[in-house]
Amino acid sequence: MYYEVSCYSCKVVFKVYEGSLAYKQFKERKTKMFTCDDCQHRIRLEAINNFFR
Ligand SMILES: [Zn+2]
Asked: 52 CA to middle of ligand 1, Å?
């Protein structure tokens, strides 16, 4: 069981599988902003870079 959502950053469509945090958020409609693994990784790196700036 999974949902297909699109990444708000790069617009790629990816799957969120049952049991994952994104799946839970989608189901509970807590957010419409989903990021794929690549963007999640990139955003995390940018956050770290900003932190040390
Ligand atoms: Zn993305």
From this structure: 24
Q: Tell me: the pLDDT tens digits for 1-53?
A: 999 999 999 999 999 999 998 899 999 988 878 999 999 999 999 999 999 87
Integer Cα distance of 53 and 44 in angstroms: 14
- How far does residue 26's CA lie from ligand 1's centre (Å)? 16
The structure's pTM equals 0.70
| Interval between CA 18 and ligand 1 midpoint (Å) | 19
Q: Which residues constitute the domain of residue 8? A: 2-51
As to burial, measured by CB atoms within 10 angstroms (0-12 exposed, 13-18 middle, 19+ buried), residue 21 is exposed
- Per the structure, the count of domains in the chain is 1
